[in-house]
Amino acid sequence: MIKRDSLLSLEAYARERDAFRARVIDHKKRRTVHLGDHLTLQFEDELTIRYQVQEMLRIERIFEEEGIRHELDTYNPLVPDGSNWKSTMLLEYPDADERKRMLARLKGIERQVWVEIKGCERVFAIADEDLERENDEKTSAVHFLRFELTAPMRKALHAGAGVSVGVDHAEYRAQGEVAPEVRTALTADLA
Question: What pTM was estimated for this model as a whole?
Fold first, then answer.
């Protein structure tokens, strides 16, 4: 959880932003999984969410305590708590017409994303706990997912078990092994 007193002031953040941003971009490379050509999972942690909070404070020029508290209340739930992974899921279709067509066809995809630790059952994502991100016509291009991992799953990961990630939607299927450097980064999130 990100504490109020650990945030940089707007002035301090302006001085350190370029270096901090470069560090976060490099960090995210070891926390990103692509499933097929159009679905990306960005696994969040304290650093990625800290960057998001600092950026929101900067963009919105928020310096009052109430506004800062609101941003922390909004983003802190996206930090994993030691027993789970939290991910931002992006459905990426550069062409606007294709994106509109596919978001209509991909309703419910956010509930069909899974992780599997070798030797354990698949864990399907708990999606969009903050608010509903689909309607009768389409799903959203951005979803927030949580994968709850049991103690035996976490133990297997700490012992070196491999991880697979996939999606089993009627209109979009993909799966793959998580790269070793990503598996290492994600395992470090767990108690």
Answer: 0.91
